[in-house]
Amino acid sequence: MTTISSRDRTIALVAVAATIASGIAISVHANPVLLFVITAVALAMLASMVGSATEQLGGKLGPGATGVLQSALGNLPELFICIFALRQGLVTVVQSALIGSILANSLLVLGLAFLAGGLKNGAQKFGKQQPRMIASLMLLAVSGLMIPTLAHTLHTAAGRHPDTLSIAAAIVLLIVFLVSLPVSIKGGPLTPADCEPCAEETPDAWPMWLSIVTLLAAGVGAAFVSDWFVEALKPAIRILHLSEAFTGLVLVAIAGNAVENVVGIQLAIKNRMDFAVSVILNSSLQVSLGLIPVLVLLSFFLGGAHLTLVLTPLLIAVLALAAIVTTVVVYDGESIWLEGAALIGLYVIIAAAFWWG
Q: Average of pLDDT values for 235-259?
């Protein structure tokens, strides 16, 4: 007999209810702000469902395969949001949302993990090698993402070809990501370390068929809800007097990506910092090496606006700052609650800087 935890059952019920409510709201042309809120909740819950099903499926396939699955499926809601937003010409929202995903993981979620874990357990320690490896790759990935913007800003010859340069950078980053897959599948330094206590996180194992059905259902639901979410985006931005940059950087990024990483905070509270830090940092790395390059390439084939890596100077600056700060914070293999509070504070200041655009 299959036993589903009360948490997973609650998430599934809320996701189904919010998805149905979103469909009803779009069919009766409900207030755009109401539709925006309902679809955001639905996306967050669907993302959490994808994360739970992936974790359950990974429990049968091993930690390496779990990392690959999380990379491929964990960002499904955000992928759909960005595709539909590009088809409506919301390039600023998409660029801000992608950078916002990295910021949300590297600063907000990591900060909350350090804060919650530190307040409960005091100073916490974690292995240095894996976080250093991920942070180094993140710095390299961010450097690659910055080149098209620098070429454009510095008025170089390459800066006159933003589409071609962005495609070239995306292909290279994607190759690096693909090269890392064999290492990930084998459980190398790019995947969370396996450990016996991990089994305690999922005492109620799902059968294979339930995990697959949940993934398919959540993926289909995310596709529909993302379309409705983007449809409500433009009027909601206008009614709420929000800038496209702030909407993408904060609201879209959190709705599509960050909620699934609550598991990182839960692991920190349980003093399992090796796994917590690895999960959180890997999420940022997967967006940089996987999601962003894929969206850049897809945007040239799906119609609508083209997504390039020529970003605004402030977006590039905060992206570089987040990568550097994260590297410095995790380099010593220790964390305290004050570091978490500082990371959260930095995220709030960055979000405030984009309030006006």
A: 83
Identify the H or E element spanning 173.
helix 162-185
What Rg, from alpha-carbon coordinates, does the chain have? 19
306 Rama class: left (phi>0) / alpha (psi -120 to 50) / beta: beta
We report the CATH number of the domain holding residue 301 as: 1.20.1420.30
pLDDT(284) > 70: yes
The pTM for the full model equals 0.83
Q: Considering only CA atoms, which of 268, 66, 90, 278 is closest in space to residue 190?
A: 278
> CA-to-CA distance for 286 and 59, rounded, in angstroms?
20
192: phi > 0 → left, psi -120 to 50 → alpha, else beta; which? beta
Tally the domains of the chain: 1
Range of the domain at 230: 6-353
> Nearest Cα to 70, choosing from 47, 57, 51, 56?
51
Q: Over the stretch 113-144, which tens digit does the pLDDT of each residue have?
A: 999 999 999 999 988 887 888 888 899 999 99
| 83 found inside a domain | yes
Kindly state whether residue 328 falls inside one of the protein's structural domains: yes
List residues bridging with 125 in a β-sheet.
Answer: 334
| Alpha carbon distances (Å) from 154 to 159, 209, 295 | 8, 54, 25
Domain assignment present for residue 1? The answer is no
Q: What are phi and psi of 78, to 5 degrees?
A: -70, -35
Residue 176 lies in a domain: yes
